[in-house]
Amino acid sequence: MAATLGTVTSILQLVDTALTARDYIQDFRHAPEERRTLLSEMEHLRPLLKELHDRIQSNQPSGQSSSYSSSIPQQMEKPLSDFQKTMEGFQQSLKPAGTLKDFSRRMKWPLWGKKESKEYLGKFEQFKSLLNGWLLLDIWDSGQQQRSDHQDILKSVEDAADEQRQAHDRMLSLAILFKSVAY
């Protein structure tokens, strides 16, 4: 669980770094459509990753073993690790090659060709689909757990009501018995 949380945190940092770099690109308006789509897709990934991060973190009390009922985080480790490598490669392509002039030239978007942009876009879209699926399954798991908890509570209330009825019936029987003994 901690490894999954660390991977998600790392991916979030990589996405934030790439989006920050995008904010500094002066010629972003002139970027080819594929590259704008690529960064837009990354922007859409960020809230999903943040939600996943928050869910994993909120279900992992510090100093205790995880109370997370879902097996989803364990199933996500490999795809998350793969996506982390993709993001690290993407971030490497944004790093300056040497001088500020080289960096400036790279930030004017001769970063990749159309093929590389589509490749990254495909990976981002695939991961976003996986992430949406995981979050939906997590919601479903939570709903099932709440349903089970609700049924357990109802059963407890019914059992308590039965015990109270039985106690009431015993009290009535005793009252009738005492009444008949008293006369």
From TrEMBL:
Positions with biased composition (Low complexity): 57-75
Stretch list, region Disordered: 57-76
Protein name: Fungal N-terminal domain-containing protein
Source organism (scientific name): Mycena maculata
